[in-house]
Design brief:
It contains 19 helices and twelve strands. It has 498 residues and is of the alpha/beta class.
Length: 498
Amino acid sequence: MLRRRSSGILLHITSLPSRYGVGDFGREAYQFVDFLRAAGQNHWQILPLNPTMAQTGYSPYNCLSTFAGNPLLISPDLLHRDGLLTRGEVQDAPRFPPDPVDFEKVSSYKGRLLDRAFERFRARGNPADYEVFTQTHRAWLDAYAGFVALKRRFKGRQWCDWPAAVRDRKTDALRSIEDHLSGPIERERFLQYIFYKQYRDLKHYCNERGVQVAGDVPIYVAYDSADVWSHPDLFKLNRSKKPRFIAGVPPDYFSETGQLWGNPVYDWQQLEQTDFHWWVQRMRHNLLLFDFVRIDHFRGLVAYWEVPASHTTAVHGKWAQAPHGKFLRELFRQIPFAAIFVEDLGYITADVREVVNRYNFPRMVVLQFAFGGNAQNLHLPHNHVENSIVYTGTHDNNTTRGWFDREIKGPARKHLFEYLGCKVAASDIAWELMRVAMRSVARIAIIPMQDVLGLGTEARMNTPAKKAGNWLWRMRPGQTTARLADTLRRLTETSGRA
């Protein structure tokens, strides 16, 4: 149960300004925390921090690992501060575009910097806290480091196409990997150590200033990941260790043919036999990283849409049940006060609502989904409940201005104006919906940074079912002004959320 009125901003780390081509844990992240504090905000919601890959469009929801951190978020400036990069190395950055992320160019450049930092780190000898880190996280770190080293060794091939002994993680093969790839494996351990050290310092800075960090746990994991390679028995795979079924959703608001995500679905019977150990550890890991954790596509923990792997659309999938009662009981037995809220959007049935209510999970309402239907629409402000989090839109929605310009037409637009009590210009719509969100009875209001800035479709973060061109938007330097912070603070105070 959410206990006090508050508000915050949704902005992923990659969307921060940076002269290194992608947002990171450096100076601009700390400046954004200062902006949040000046604007009276108590929450910073971010997307998953896991290592992204080119073959999935650098999506933070389809990563190499659900435990590891994304090395692209490591700050070169902080590496320089710690003596792991020279001043010349950090000053010699290429000229990156000011806003959209060029992930390939950034990956190539930062990869070279991280190689140099690792060489200097190894020459110094491992500090005591490095040994503590590698031992504390050994359950996932060793498999992840080996997986990434092997991906490079086999030129990016999927793990199911590796030599059988390596694919199947035979003991002798794993020993040989550790011997022959010790350098590349140690490099990945080092990068995770640096990632978590820099992130820990940033989160501490947030908490000291009254800002809580909300993180996100994707319901599924990527097939070509350290998780599936190291735990193939937890997923529905065939004898060749390829998926028998893949995840998605049926036709919905975003796509007439549904969404075919391509992730392997869980073998919940096998998970149950292990007392859901992997899932509980995953949640424990994230609850140590974040003050609140959102479970993405929560309905997949109750019933999930599985599609035969041979299908090209999600239309002919079927609903399969998950043992949600047993899993959630075990989760809260081991982590009694887990601070979880749920993404319960899309096709939500009575059984999902029942689970949300039984565990008193805070749920989500999105104002962009509110207009054009009937008065019982749960997203309409008069139907909001206190134990919920209200958004103008999420990372999967258009910006509010883009939505107004391109998506809400005819009767839906008329309904919007009637609800607001006046006609609104495109330049004002984002702040009008922000005022509605802030005045809602929902205990927390979260506003995407694009809406605070009043940006249009060009600033959209993700379009579901679109395979390319997502996750690229970044703020430009100087957009978080003192005047903007003061205006947002006044709205926050007036709404009783400061």
